[in-house]
Amino acid sequence: MHRFVKRVFRNQRGITGIETAIILIAFVIVASVFAYVALSAGLFSTQKAKEAIHSGLQEAESTIEVKGNIYGRMENSILTEVYFTLATTTGGGMIDFTDTSSANASNKVIISYSDIYQIIPTVNWTMERLNTDTTDNILDKNELFMITVDLTCVSENVSDEWKPGPYHKFQLEVKPPVGAVLVLERTVPARVDQIVNLY
Q1: Higher pLDDT, 49 or 68
Q2: Sheet holding 145-150, edge to edge
């Protein structure tokens, strides 16, 4: 009997080794799956962080600034046009200033008007190149564009107190497709001529 039991257990030794190997392989497979998931999540979050940094740099690089004074044209003591000169900031990128005067062109840059009485999401404007040899509408480094904003729509069908006259405070927002919004807040002076310096 003792020999018979010994024989039975002797034959079971290999099976125990195979079971251990199977369990070990299962643990390795599960661990590799978890490692793959962890690495994929890490790579995905790294890619998203890279995209966020890239878009932030793009926003910062494509900003514009005003060069010089901002002037206004007055008709019957009502502000009808605003003139200002724009340039890119140091290290800034290119900005498309295709304006409303171009045939079948859609504005890339939006200019909006607001004051205490009304908000106009988009107003008409035109662009004139000041110091460039190129014929495109792209504001590049070391170029200056003079922008003329038409504000006749502001005074249409509104009461006299809503019209931008002396002491009237208003705000223009220049919104390029990429980059920070340029906010121009100005007040019409008390004494007005045909052309006034808006401060």
Answers
A1: 68
A2: 125-129, 145-150, 78-88, 64-75, 195-198
